[in-house]
Design a protein that fits this description.
This protein has 94 residues and is mainly beta. The chain is built from one helix and five strands. Helices cover 14% and strands 45% of the residues. The protein has a five-stranded antiparallel β-sheet, with helices on one face.
Length: 94
């Protein structure tokens, strides 16, 4: 069994677990439509006005009590300047 986790790489902040890559992408599509200065996109740091969130998806293999990372890809960056889908992420996670 596998699970897919979203993490904000910039702030090392876990953002949720999903049962499929498509579910994780759906969540990021929602976030891409949410303004950068509103939760969950608003950065937790004091310099949030000039900071960004870089969301990655990690695929884990769940084997009893262990969670083994299978693949990881940076997928989306959201900031005051832009919403940027990072190219090639589809090749890293299935």
């Amino acid at each position: 069994m596998n699970k897919f986790s979203i993490e904000d790489e910039t702030h090392a902040e876990w953002q949720g677990d999903f049962s499929s890559f498509d579910e994780a992408i759906s969540e990021l599509k929602k976030r891409a439509k949410t303004p950068w200065d509103e939760p969950p996109n608003k950065c937790p740091c004091t310099g949030w006005e000039t900071c960004d969130r870089t969301y990655s998806i990690t695929e884990f293999i769940i084997d009893d009590a262990t969670y083994t990372p299978q693949s990881e890809a940076e997928v989306l960056t959201i900031s005051a300047k832009e919403v940027l889908w990072l190219s090639g992420y589809e090749q890293h996670c299935s």
